[in-house]
Amino acid sequence: MTNHEHVEESCAEALAQVQAFLHNELPVSDADLIRAHLNACEKCLENFDVEALISRMLRRSCSSPPAPANLRVRLTALRVTYRLDDH
Ligand SMILES: [Zn+2]
User: Fold this and answer.
1) Of the candidates 41, 49, 55, which has an alpha carbon nearest to the alpha carbon of residue 72?
2) How do the domains of the chain map onto residue ranges?
3) Which secondary structure element, helix H or strand E, spans residue 23, and what is its range?
4) Full-prediction pTM beyond 0.85?
5) Cα(20) to centroid of ligand 1, in Å?
6) Least enclosed by CB within 10 Å: which of 9, 20, 43, 49?
7) Distance 80 CA to ligand 1 centre (A)
8) Which residues contact 15 (CB under 8 A, 6 or more apart)?
9) 26 phi-psi bin (left φ>0, alpha ψ -120 to 50, beta other)
10) Which residue has the higher pLDDT, 19 or 87?
């Protein structure tokens, strides 16, 4: 499927910029592209959540591992925030 390959290429580009997106380092136009792709691509949305969690964890502390329950709550909160923000 050539179409599938094209999609995966977009995914790679989107994910490559996710960190900058999370840190608000992207211009608004680029951030909108990432946001639009994440909104349309469930695979990337999952990856985005993971990246966001990792980013937040690294910012707070490298030494204390988060509890699984905590992770799940944060993941849900992230998704809700993201969807509300997008609409
Ligand atoms: Zn994608």
Assistant:
1) 49
2) 2-86
3) none
4) no
5) 16
6) 9
7) 19
8) 44, 47, 48, 51
9) beta
10) 19
Query: Ligand 1 centre from 16 Cα, in Å?
Result: 11
Q: If you average pLDDT over residues 23-28, what whole number do you get?
A: 88
What is the predicted pLDDT for the residue at 27?
93
How far is ligand 1, taken at its centre, from the CA of residue 54, in Å? 19
Q: Indicate the Cα dihedral angle 63, 74, 87, 27, nearest 10°.
A: 0
Q: Which amino acid is at 80?
A: V
Under a CB-based contact definition with an 8 Å cutoff, are residues 35 and 86 in contact?
yes
Q: How far is the CA of 87 from the centre of ligand 1 (A)?
A: 19
13-42 burial, b for 16+ CB within 10 Å, e for fewer?
A: ebbebbeebbeeebeeeebebbbebbeebe
For residue 33, report the distance from its CA to the centre of ligand 1, in Å.
11
